[in-house]
Amino acid sequence: MKTAILDITDRIRERSAASRGAYLARVRRLAARQRGSDRLGCANVAHAFAALPGSDKLRIVAERAPNLGVVTAYNDMLSAHQPYESYPGLLRDEARRHGATLQVAGGVPAMCDGVTQGTPGMELSLFSRDTIAMGTAIALSHDVFDGALLLGICDKIVPGLLIGALHFGHLPCVFVPAGPMSSGLSNTEKSHVREQYAQGQVGREALLQAESSAYHGPGTCTFYGTANSNQMLLEAMGLHVPGAAFIHPHDGLREDLTREAVRSALALVERRQLIGEQVDERVIVNAMVALLATGGSTNHLIHWVAVARAAGIHIDWSDFAELSAVVPLLARVYPNGSADVNQFQAAGGPGFVLRELLDAGCLHPDVAAVAEGGIGAYTQVPVRDEGKLTWRALPPSPIDPAVVRTHTAPFSATGGLKLLTGNLGRSVIKVSAVPADRHVIEAPARVFDSQEALMAAFKAGELERDLVAVVRFQGPHANGMPELHKLTPPLAVLQGKGFKVALVTDGRMSGASGKVPAAIHVTPEALAGGPLARVRDGDLIRLDAGAGTLEVLIDDATWAAREPATIDPAQAEDNAHGLGRDLFGGMRRNVTSAEEGACTWL
């Protein structure tokens, strides 16, 4: 393995020694107990299995057969989760075929960021992750399960399920995806129509037609945003059945992989492989490497910090930055290229990337995984051969070198994400999607306290110049740190006109955003007295992705003497009420910073 990656892993291990040790002690103490049906009181057991057929009760209580719990994020609002409707019956049938039982332990909420972008509902999005983690805990708190299957795909859902599962680290766990939708209108063309609409060149009817042609059926959206980055990371962590990520929901192979998830979970129960032990420092680093090698979603610089904390492991953005310096960029999938995830899968997908990362010495090979073959099993692709599920090796050369590359001929020698530091705080930028001539932007600031204010200024023609748009009071404490994806079309229009444009914000951008340079997740946030609160219109700001800096070019004395702005009371009041936001006041007050994972449970 690369020495730098081993060194970073050792540093994480040393930093986390006390918390990881305490976590593992709790996990092993719980794992040492009797099975649930033997340990619980008779009334507890009767309640737990009251609705099961008599044959299943006999299996659990008398035959002591494994009982798997399912936590599902099914709803038919999310196209990605709609296929889960039929999964409980399928999973239950497969468990019974192997003499085991299976119960749906509970459901968790799953919101679609695509629906809530630019609306007050988006202010619940980040906090939904921890709500899902708590929902997972409630489902598994019945404490009668020998293992768990976790059904979820999209942005906050997978991190939430994983955080919840790690708080039940004494259980073997398998994640069960459902696959992406078929390709529709290309992501590039969709973005072009959005930019036309932003300029008034087409109307709402044309925009809706384009959007509906892009998002048109069951399955995950086909760009490489947070949802599909989730799937890549779960493959790299060995938490899926190998190659399960990007098979279409209605492909016959999907049912084979779903049934295999049950068989895998039962095998994990048999060999007592606990998710809390499986997800160690090396597995967390493997996930970080996979994210960087594919130019994945910036949201995971928040989510995977929280995931690691759930396992007693402490990582930060400096770890990501140092890994990025030695991890090659091996994939170009929209917004980092023109291909969608179906083309990525056809070109070799996660299996090709993971094989190349292993060969390059960028992944820890000696880790436990759902597959008995360890992480090496995830370098192949699933196929159906004579009616049976099997796996085959990928060709040594790229099937489509415009989409995936070998580690000896990467798209870039370094990863797709970068840490920025300076007198404006710490932030991150997704460089893999930004044209090289936009990696350095120096321009006067135009300051906004909301995304609506920026949109209004754009529509009024006030932004037709070089500028750094500062959008502040968008952090976790202020309003739940919404994604500001609605700002991408107007800023892209300005960039397309030849202006030098960048965004600086303590909010988030969509995992699908990219070509406009954006310094996001600025920490400390403005509401917590962070430096963005001191920026004024006209201040010269320099964003240098190459040097890894984000600075306001003002002399130190003037900067130090400047009083920070405060959030408008009416805006603060609006952020606190309406459309359920009242219920999340405790989370806004208690949430940690973005770099600390925006956790509400620490």
TrEMBL record:
Any Gene Ontology biological process: Entner-Doudoroff pathway through 6-phosphogluconate
UniProt-listed Pfam families: ILV_EDD_C, ILVD_EDD_N
N-terminal signal peptide: none
Catalytic activity: 6-phospho-D-gluconate = 2-dehydro-3-deoxy-6-phospho-D-gluconate + H2O
Annotated cofactor note: Binds 1 [4Fe-4S] cluster.
The entry's keywords: 4Fe-4S, Carbohydrate metabolism, Gluconate utilization, Iron, Iron-sulfur, Lyase, Metal-binding
Residue ranges of domain Dihydroxy-acid/6-phosphogluconate dehydratase C-terminal in the record: 403-598
The keyword Transferase is annotated on this UniProt entry: no
PROSITE patterns (alphabetical): ILVD_EDD_1, ILVD_EDD_2
Descriptive protein name: Phosphogluconate dehydratase
Species annotation: Azohydromonas caseinilytica
